[in-house]
What does this fold into?
Amino acid sequence: MTTSPEEQALFADASQVKLERQQLNPADTAFAIQQGLAKARTRRMTGHVQLKWITAVLVTALAAGWLLMGPLGGTPQQARYSQPAQNWGVLEPFRELAEKDVDGNTITSAINNGYVQLVNRSVKSGIYQLTVNAVMADENKIIVLYTAQTDASQEIYSVPKTSMVNGMTNQSLGNGGISSLYSSNGKYILYGRSTVEMDGNTPLPGQVKFNFRISSVVPDLLTDTNKVKKDTKYQFSKPMEVSFDLDPKFSVPKTEKIKLNQLFTIGGHEVMLSEAEVSPLVTRVRFIYEPNQKIDYKTKLSVSDVVNPTEIVSTTKDRQKTLLSRVSGNGTEDGMIYSFSSNLLDAPQSLVLKLHGEPGKVYDDLQEAEKHKLELKIK
It folds into this structure.
């Protein structure tokens, strides 16, 4: 089978995600994440966008780390809001995905609090079909839950790329990431999550176009067991699209902005946790590096290497704790903005940001590393 350059790129993305999700052990995953961040720093040194972390790379690496070893920082499992389990109805198949996904606590909080819109719109092309089951949104983020499937002629492989655009203007809604989980019922269904992060300055669109392609495994037609099997072949669907209207209720919640201006020293650098933004689907924190002096690009990179936030501990009034995992990061003119998952709808009374406290230090165990983390109170 001959594949186009676009399909080859899609296959490369799909293969990478599959490897990170299924083949790496925890040690390999940690090394892969470190390599990815190192490459990102190299690109920042030589590329055309300074101090810009590629969100999709971070999401993929963090998701791989989450599936195998918990959030960065070594916590084995994500702590969940431990109210009695609610029945998710038609979205129940996504519970397992949420338990393993970097945005899992956000999805769980939204569904448990009814902050979700059922869509149930499908499109089919040949052997491929995708259904947008549900969506949740706020002014900073959109999360789509979908089911992708093939017929019995080919096993499904992945949904290698997705994108969302404004249904009225066709403008991209932002950068994002994807996560998926094979159905326990067979090899022909994937349950997936796709997200885009927005800057909060643009109103939510009234309509969203969800674009995607699906890949599948071409059956091995060799019948002679003595012959050497050829490399696995993959097939891609044509570009497909599902359009749906967004419920106006998602435009009601406004982002809570918390001024902090907390100074701390780490790795010999002075850093300010300047502010936090909290909305139903995302928690963002902003750092300013060396706020009292003018620094050059090299110094910014040096500071970014030692400022490593791992998670936010959210505590509700009944003392239930939830770990909000880091999802992405983006460079700013004077520092970094990191995005974390959110459980704002659970009405947390306390939010505490945790960072690695001693850059470069090697710990004997996870408990020791946890004790040395730096804690900064957001609320």
Remarks:
- The radius of gyration is 21 Å.
- The helical segments are 5-22, 26-46, 55-69, 95-100, 104-112, 297-306, 366-371.
- Residues 26-46 form the longest helix (21 residues).
